[in-house]
Every structure is written in structure tokens, then in C-alpha cells.
Amino acid sequence: MQLRYTFRVHPEPGQRRALARAFGCARVVFNDAVRAREDARAANEPYPSGAAPSKRLITEARHTPERAWLGEVSSVVLQQALRDVEVAYRNFFASLKGKRKGPKVGAPRFKSRKDARQAIRFTANARWKITGRGRLVLPKIGELRVTWSRVLPVTPSSVTVIKDAAGRYFASFVIDTDPGTDRARWEAPDPDSAVGIDLGLTTFAVLSAGTRIASPRFLRRAEKRLKMAQRNLSRKEKGSKNREKARLKVARAHARVADARKEFHHQLSTKLIRENQAIAVEDLAVSGLARTRLAKSIHDAGWSQLEYKAKRYGRVFVKIGRFEPTSQICSACVHRDGPKPLHVREWTCPACGTVCDRDHNASINVKTAAGLAVTACGAKVGPEPVLAQREETGSHGITHPRRAGQRHSNR
Questions:
Q1: Which of 171-175, 327-331, 347-351 is the most confident on average?
Q2: Does the reported pTM lie above 0.85?
Q3: Virtual CA dihedral for 345, 350, 352, 353, nearest 10 degrees?
Q4: Does residue 12 carry a catalytic annotation?
């Protein structure tokens, strides 16, 4: 299992210029590789594989007047740009053949120096290191000051230096770890502790134990500031220095919202994983819901993170089917009385007379459908849970598990 540990770095002015050169050289090599592929396809010729692209686009290009400046950066950075092109085309062709999970992937496109995110990657053969003073030493860049927020558990296999739209720099370390090895980090929870979660918008989540977690609405609360910053940006002349300053203000305002949301998700998901041995959620259609009138609220909620943390810490994670009638069944007597409109938040069961809260009732039904509910005699209800399989590694930014289905979580 691969994980990413991301830390803020603070380069000096000279190091920023060196990083800008590295970003630019990696971008040029990436674009040259994409252009070579497109030219070969247009000429109906096979694209050279193996060491041929590296020899032509890096080694030989360095000795030409047009690409002589490629020698100013580490060759590992340029080699990684070529590997990124190969991976992008491999994913594209796998998507065309239906062998790749998730949404369709398009062909690689040319990168621009105006892209919001710039990144370069150093593998172990680049001989980067972390000094005893906690500085990150990168070839042809120097010692970067790092803000360490936690300790790296093992030696990283690679480091990616990232510059985001807000002008901030990050170092993202990739580490390899076995699933479940971190389970001893905290005291083990009760083996029978399990929770069902009903996700929503007005209330972020309702747990089967009755706990309600309010939705922070980070984007909604920051909308006024974002609108003012965006309006100020639209009035600036394109290409001017004042427009670049206004663009940075907009990017930083969005970064504050994203960081606050990320911190909230990490704290909540860690708390749930720490306190429960098994967790059940619904398989929601986030991509489908994001195309409705609720799109802004869906993106503002940003449900994520539980699946990979459950695998990392050796917990059981279960997703129930998207068409499970959790809001149609009374959790007390299992009587099903049909669908209800969204404005109905509470109703009385006609069979047993129990007053059912829509969200709490749904969370209990989620737990029952996942096979995590226990009867009075101690037997579990429903099928046995299985360990979830994580589909991709962590990344800078938050990993969002792909979900399918077509109904709203507050049903």
C-alpha cells in the first residue's frame, strides 16, 4: 500500500528560480514527448519505445542550441516527465479498451506554463536526501527548509515538489507500507464496535448511535469573500501585474477553503476509524449528484477518506448497494412503507408506531444491511463484511472514493 506524506517547503528566492527552471524543463520534455507521439500517429508510424525517446528528447536535445538549457536541471526530473507521458498514454488506451476502472480518460494534452499546478518528481537514483537538520536536499536546487508536521514512518521511495495555484510549495513523499501495520498506533477498539453512517448535506453525517455531525459548509461561508476577490480579478487588465496579484488572492481564498475542508475530513475520519472496528456507508453517486442543482452543496460536503484509512488501520469497511431502501424501512420492526419525499424528515411507522427520524433511521438500516447489526441473542444480521480494496494511492489533495448511484443522501 502506498501513501503520501505532504509537507510545506519554503524555498529561498534563488531556489525558487531553480525550481521554476526545473518545472519548465520537465514541461518542455513532456510536451516534446506528446508531440512526438502525435507526429508518429499522424504519419502512421510506430512510436519508438525503450531508451529511444530518452536519447532523442533529452540526451541529444541537450546538445542543440534550442534545448541546451535542459542541462541546467537534474536528468531524473526529465526522465520522470517521459515516464508520466508513458503512463498517461497507457491509461488512455486502457480506458478505450474498457480495462481501466472509473470514468473515461482522454488522451494526454500539452502542458502550459500558466497551469495552476506545477510539479517535478525525484526518485531514489536522484540521490536526494534529508539532512540531520531536517532540510530537504535536491540536486541542482539546494537545501529546502521544510515544515515537518509529523515523522516519516519509513524511508520514502520518491519525493514530488509541487507548486500550487496559490504560489505555495510542497514536498510530497511516497512511502510503501503494509495494510494494517498501523493498527497498533492506538488502543484497539471493542471488537464488536460498529457504526453505520448516513451522509447528507444539511447534516454532514448521522451515525447509527444517534450522533449528528453538522455540516461546516466551508464554501458557503466563504462565498462573499470569494465573490469579491473574483470580481476584483475580472476588472484587471489581462497580462498586467495587478491581474496576477488579484489571481493570487483568488487562489489563496480557495486554498483556505480547501485546507479547512481537508482538515475537517481528516479529523472526522480518523476519529471514526479509531473508535470503531467496522464501518458501513452507502455507495453514493457523487458524480451524478454533482450534475444536479445540488452540485455546489455536494462539492462543498466532499465525502471522502474512510475507505483507505480503514484498510490502512486494519478496520472492516463495507459499502451497501446504492438501491438499498434505507429510508423506506422502519429500523425497529423492518416494516417497509414505500418511498418518501425529501421534505419528510420524520414519520411514524404504521406497523409498530415508532417515530422514525429519517437520517438516524437510515444510518441504522445501513449498519443492518452491511451485516454489522447484532440481535439480542448476539447474532449478526445480514451478510458477513469483507475488507475493502483501495483503488489508488493517496495524493496531494484528498482521495475521493468513486461511488455510483442516483439518489440524494438526505433521502
A1: 171-175
A2: no
A3: 60
A4: no
